[in-house]
Design goal:
The protein is α+β, with helices and mostly antiparallel strands and 354 residues long. The chain is built from 13 helices and eight strands. Strands 1, 2, 3, 4, 5, 6, 7 and 8 form an eight-stranded antiparallel sheet that branches. Helix 2 runs antiparallel to helix 3 and helix 10 packs antiparallel against helix 11.
């Protein structure tokens, strides 16, 4: 009796339950050892049993899981699996972070920014906003540099903070630093930079007011969408999924490559090295950014934490390739690897078709 005969027949209720449990094993392993395992289980069960025991269920499920993660013998396979897991883990974290930021709120238009700056300054202000965004247009930002009030009101930081709080903004503490400012005449002015972070309705901004030697004091505003709540869990989920996928990929592909001759392995190894270098360069920075995101939390309340670069942006910033080329390369590598990991369809058994 062949493996296919043992696993494909109708059988008893106990046999059907065993066959369903054997689906936890990889297809290639079931094809090679499925009949032997099924025969051993049926012989040990005896005629009076109609369902597997809890211990058998646990052992079969854990055994199947071990087979999925089992690597070819050798230290090289373990090294490649670890590198693959780390590279795809970073890619997964970046993808999860990008998906989370895609749900962020869009910035207000120029009129909306003008209104916010007016509240900060206490009156209409002259300003010039520069709009930017991270890769793929995610996390749009608006920077209002040195907005000067039209009148004579000096927009102190505490007064600006109070006005924003009255408008429903959640404001953080004021942090003071000293800044040296060089004027056009070569005169150095010592000024205190008072900064605080404010957040409302999915928007977050850092307000900076220079006081000392200025009349009236210039105001700088950096605004971007606040980090959505989904960013952190999606980043962690993408990281875990990438780590598992990287290991499983080597476990699946490694056995197929091992069966090839030495010359036929070369193209696969070269492609793996090129893809690993292109996708793996930003991995250390991605892991560092992910740890910082977990430690700092989703809503920084102090100016020193404002503008933290998202994980998805770190992945592209530290890569030698532009975001679109890098993403396309990553998707292509994954598709080719997954296609190669699918086991070939077994040839028909001549004895069964005779």
């Amino acid at each position: 009796m062949t493996a296919n005969d043992a696993l494909a027949g109708a059988g008893s209720g106990l046999e059907r339950r065993y066959r369903r449990l054997l689906l936890a094993y990889p297809r290639s392993y079931r094809r090679s050892h499925g009949a032997e395992i099924l025969t051993t289980l049926m012989d040990a069960a005896g005629p009076s049993r109609d369902r597997p025991t809890r211990r058998e269920v646990r052992d079969l499920m854990l055994g199947g899981l071990r087979q999925h993660f089992r690597l070819p013998v050798g230290r090289l396979a373990v090294f490649v699996a670890v590198v693959s897991a780390l590279v795809l883990g970073a890619l997964g974290a970046a993808a999860g972070s990008g998906l989370g930021w895609a749900t962020g709120r869009a910035l207000p238009d120029d009129a909306g920014v003008d209104t916010v700056v007016g509240v900060i300054a206490g009156e209409p202000a002259r300003w010039n906003a520069t709009r930017t965004s991270d890769a793929f247009g995610l996390r749009p930002q608006a920077v209002v540099a040195l907005a000067t009030p039209v009148g004579s009101t000096v927009p102190g930081a505490e007064a600006a903070r109070s006005r924003l709080a009255a408008e429903g903004w959640r404001v953080g503490p004021v942090v003071t630093t000293q800044t040296a400012v060089w004027t056009d005449g070569g005169v150095t002015i010592r000024a205190n930079d008072y900064a605080f972070v404010a957040e409302r309705d999915g928007l977050q901004m850092m307000v900076s007011v220079l006081e000392g030697g200025f009349a009236p004091g210039p105001v700088s505003v950096m605004m971007h969408s606040a980090e959505p709540r989904s960013v952190l869990p999606l980043t962690i989920a993408g990281l875990v999924a990438g780590l598992l996928a990287g290991w499983l990929l080597v476990a699946r592909v490694g056995y197929r490559v091992r069966r090839l001759g030495a010359l036929r392995r070369v193209p696969h190894l070269v492609a793996a090295v090129v893809a690993g270098c292109a996708l793996g360069v930003p991995a250390p920075a991605v892991y560092r950014a992910a740890v910082e995101a977990v430690v700092a939390g989703p809503a920084p309340a102090r100016p020193g934490q404002f503008g933290r670069i998202p994980v998805f942006a770190v992945h592209h910033i530290d890569s030698p390739l532009d975001p679109y080329t890098l993403t396309g390369l990553g998707a292509l590598v994954l598709l080719v690897a997954l296609a190669y990991a699918v086991p070939p369809k077994p040839a028909p058994d001549p004895a069964a078709t005779a």
